[in-house]
Amino acid sequence: MDVHRRGLEPALDTSFAARENERMDLRDQARLCSCSLFAGIDPRSPGFLAPLASLQPRVYTAGNMILLAGCKYSSLHILLEGEAWAEMASEEGRVVRVESFSAVEALAAAILFTPSQRLPVSVVARTTCRIVAIPKDILLDLCSRHRPVLEAILAETGSRLESLADRMRSTQFSTLKEKLADWLLRRLELAGDGSIRLEASRERMAELFGVARPSLSRTLMAMRDEGLIDFSGRIIRIRDPKSLAEIRNGGSGHRLRRTGR
């Protein structure tokens, strides 16, 4: 999680209105089909791309506001190109970056189906972004005619709830190491074979625990050096689950054994 003050950064370039483009070309359509929400659909399915082909992507340059917190979210925004931040601001002007997005990804799909449809965060372009907005009625029509789309949206919503539960659970631990030990042990129970495959990137994991990515990497490497885990790419192998459990419960036993007392 990245915390800063908006007043200390360059002001958003509001002179640059998001540029309207022509309707989606074949490259845009191919990118849209690679989004996880539509990955289960054959692009050649009758009527799938027809209602989407006429939509007009918009381009936002780096630093421009894509979505503003508190505004009504009535269309599903798909990031076709680029990277973006989700930010929350306090009354004092402090801005907390709570999530990152990269193409091709849906933005705030779950919010579209809440009673208020109000965004809790602002979304700002981190790099030049190309985005297409799918109106809710078109999306619902796709859900009714293509079951994989409905299942993907429900899975996305469930994943967000699971992530929120993880964040709430992590607040009971005082250190990042304790949070990681708990998270790894719970994932180990699901995996069952001593190895955990990370579905999220390190950056997403850092956002989950509310820390900067370098802090997460340092803690993981320290745990590897202590013989607790080993990792290669997105695979983490648990080497000492007993010590991880001790760390989760306060770490005293693990510290005593490491110091030889």
Can you offer a commentary on this structure?
- By secondary structure, the protein is of the alpha+beta class.
- The protein contains nine helices and 13 strands.
- It has helices at 26-33, 50-53, 136-145, 147-170, 176-191, 202-209, 213-225, 241-248, 252-259; strands spanning 2-5, 19-20, 58-60, 65-67, 75-81, 83-89, 94-102, 105-107, 122-125, 129-135, 195-197, 229-232, 235-238.
- The protein has a five-stranded antiparallel β-sheet with strand order 1-7-6-9-4. Strands 2-3-10-5-8 form a five-stranded antiparallel β-sheet.
- A hairpin with a 2-residue loop joins strand 12 (229-232) and strand 13 (235-238).
- It is globular, with a radius of gyration of 21 Å.
- The protein starts with a strand and ends with a helix.
**What is the average of the pLDDT values?**
81
Shape: globular
What is the oligomer described by this structure? single chain
* Beta-strand content estimate: 15-25%
Q: Report the end-to-end length measured between terminal Cα atoms.
A: 37 Å
Count all strands and give the number: 13
Secondary-structure element order, N to C: EEHHEEEEEEEEHHHEHHEEHH
| Fraction of helical residues | 25-40%
Largest sheet: 5 strands, antiparallel
Rg value: 21 Å
Number of helices, counting only DSSP H or I runs of 4 residues or more: 9
